Amino acid sequence: DCEKDLYSNIVPVMKSLILKSFYAVRKTLDPHRRKYCFELFGYDFILDEDFNTWLIEVNTNPCLEESS
How far apart are CA 57 and CA 40, in angstroms? Predict the structure, then answer.
């Protein structure tokens, strides 16, 4: 099946992998239970030749510059 739709086939897998990664570290994300704070994560994915979605890494300090 070489025809995959981004929003109905690939994005749901990415969302599932993101949720699983948060679940795996849920107890260490905010151990001090700080209010009015947030943390930004950068997720890197790759698609193989069969359009399988693979999580490569999660960055806790992603670069948000246009030149990166």
Answer: 14
Which ranges constitute the DSSP H helices of the chain? 11-24
User: Please, what is the end-to-end C-alpha distance for the chain in angstroms?
Assistant: 34
Spell out a b/e string for 21-30, using b for 16 or more CB atoms within 10 Å of the CB, else e: eeeeeeeeee
pTM above 0.85, yes or no: no
The single-letter DSSP state of residue 63 is -
> How far, in Å, CA of 50 to CA of 31, rounded?
39
- Give the pLDDT of the chain (68 residues) as one tens digit per residue: 567 788 999 999 999 999 999 999 988 888 888 899 888 899 999 999 999 999 999 998 888 787 75
